[in-house]
Specification:
The chain contains twelve helices and six strands. The chain has about 300 residues and is an alpha+beta fold. Strands 1, 2, 3, 4, 5 and 6 form a six-stranded mixed sheet that branches. A hairpin with a 2-residue loop joins strand 3 (about 40) and strand 4 (about 45-50). The longest helix is centred in the middle third of the chain and has 39 residues, at about 140-180.
């Protein structure tokens, strides 16, 4: 039904950079209104590009796309967002704009997840280093625009899921080594490197970025890696607690530490327990309260 074709790249793993394009059939006029539909297409092609490898939230997106171009301050930023298709009313006052931007800045999904780019031909598109998708032919440019700007949201969700699964695979590998005494000794070889104490700048109160990715991609792997090294583990867990000192539910942090010790004792179920605790902490931090019921329901199985 959707007829979406991946023209370049592989489905797993996704690269993290995507180009999505549609072909506008000839003989169709742009819809009425002031939106610059004609400026978005070239030779019948409408293309958008998204980079999710380096951009995790709206702040990352704005820093990369608009640095040096916002000489008019907040008004300039609002104008740029309108050009990208954000529905921001003309009579919105500056304080309301700031409130909306503050609310968007911590979102894991970028509200404008891709930008329009122009290419002279399909061959030129396919020369790019990216996962490239063709979403079909359209009679109306507005329908093509909806397709190419919606697809990157789906792409981003699958890419993030693949990243999370790879992280869990790496954690399981580290766990297997930490729980096996002979493998734990092998960690000191040059191939594995010496244990490194977890160092975190600042605290949760000043943290910017995707907390779940930080916890599951850096903090937890370090703690598991150091399970075979009591001195390094002790220092690392203390630094983690210092980072989390402003967290309003400190028992979650204590529970992570307890689960790590149970992991060391051979309870592999704690791997999932720790992941759920990290997801809970992240959901509370980013105010993604809709995620909490499912997380809490599964956490209850570990009581």
């Amino acid at each position: 039904m959707l007829n979406i074709i991946q023209k370049k790249g592989v489905s797993n793993p996704l690269m993290g950079r995507v180009l999505v394009y549609a072909r506008i059939l000839p003989g169709n006029e742009s819809p009425p209104g002031s939106f610059p539909w004609e400026d978005m297409t070239r030779n019948g092609l409408l293309v958008v590009s998204g980079d999710f490898k380096t951009q995790h939230n709206l702040a990352d997106f704005l820093r990369k796309e608009f640095k040096g171009e916002l000489g008019d301050g907040l008004e300039g930023l609002v104008q740029k967002l309108r050009e990208l298709g954000e529905d921001i009313p003309d009579d919105l006052n500056p304080e309301e704009i700031r409130r909306r931007l503050d609310g968007m800045s911590n979102m894991e999904i970028i509200p404008v997840p891709a930008k329009v780019v122009t290419f002279d031909s399909e061959d030129a598109i396919l020369e790019e280093v990216a996962d490239i998708f063709f979403v079909g032919e359209f009679h109306g440019v507005q329908h093509a625009h909806l397709a190419v700007t919606s697809f990157p949201i789906l792409y981003q969700s699958i890419y993030r899921e693949q990243q999370a699964l790879r992280t869990m695979t790496e954690i399981n590998s580290l766990l297997d080594q930490a729980l096996d005494s002979s493998e734990a000794k092998a960690i000191t070889t040059p191939q594995r490197g010496d244990p490194v104490v977890l160092e975190i700048k600042g605290t949760l109160e000043t943290f910017k970025g995707n907390l779940l990715e930080f916890l599951m991609g850096q903090v937890i792997p370090n703690l598991i890696y150091n399970l075979g090294y009591p001195a390094e583990f002790s220092l690392s867990i203390q630094n983690f607690k210092l980072f989390m000192k402003h967290y309003r539910w400190p028992l979650d942090v204590v529970e992570i530490e307890d689960s790590l010790y149970r992991l060391k004792g051979g309870d592999h179920r704690q791997n999932r327990h720790i992941e759920l605790l990290c997801r809970k902490i992240s959901a509370l931090f980013h105010e993604e309260f809709e995620r909490l019921p499912a997380i809490q329901s599964e956490l209850a199985q570990f009581k």
